Amino acid sequence: MNAEDWITHLDMAAHPEGGYFKQSFVSPEKIRLTTHPAERNLYTSIYFLLRSQDISHFHRLKSDELWYFHMGSAVTVHILDAEGNYRAEKLGLDLTAGERPQVLVEKGSIFGSTVDAEDTFSLVGCMVSPGFDFADFELLRQAELLLRYPEQEKIIKKLAYE
């Protein structure tokens, strides 16, 4: 199956950050934390599909997000931590090439992702805890990030919306 087949069969929609998603699980349990403006599900999970020509643009969540590789080509998860340190985590199954089948993005980190191989795609799962809510989702712009982290200009210009 190609990317469009997966998008259709999983009933995925375009995500504001880029790529395609479909919510797959929502915990029935609720939790209230001081770091979130309202009660949240204990966890939520989505399927996320990213094609080579797509970019998952820089964004930030108030919760941890754990990525799971399902199939396709490896994904690079680009992460700027709270101090502005950059790291690239490879999500995939080729352990000898430094890929890992799971990647954690810590709450408050700025992150996005790419599929570096050409003419392909990747299907992953993303579990967020406390559960995802668009109220906690923040897309970040180049100008804002360049002011805060000028030393990360190259990756910011690649992954942040103008």
Structure description:
It is a single chain. The protein has 162 residues and is mostly beta strands. Helices cover 13% and strands 41% of the residues. The protein contains three helices and 13 strands. The strands form three sheets. Strands 1-2-5-12-7-10 form a six-stranded antiparallel beta sheet. A five-stranded antiparallel beta sheet has the order 9-8-11-6-13, covered by helices on one side. Strands 3-4 form a two-stranded antiparallel sheet. A hairpin with an 8-residue loop joins strand 3 and strand 4. The longest helix is centred in the N-terminal third of the chain and has 7 residues. The protein starts with a helix and ends with a helix.
Oligomerization: single chain
Q: Summarize the helix and strand pattern as letters.
A: HEEEEEEEEEEEEEHH
Helix content: 10-25%
User: Sheet bearing the most strands, described?
Assistant: 6 strands, antiparallel
Q: How much of the sequence is in beta strands?
A: 35-45%
- Low-confidence regions: none
Supply Rg: 15 Å
Q: Helix count?
A: 3
Mean pLDDT: 96
N- and C-termini, Cα separation: 34 Å
> Could you say which structural class the secondary elements and strand pairing correspond to?
mainly beta
**Outline type:** globular
Order of strands across the biggest sheet?
1-2-5-12-7-10
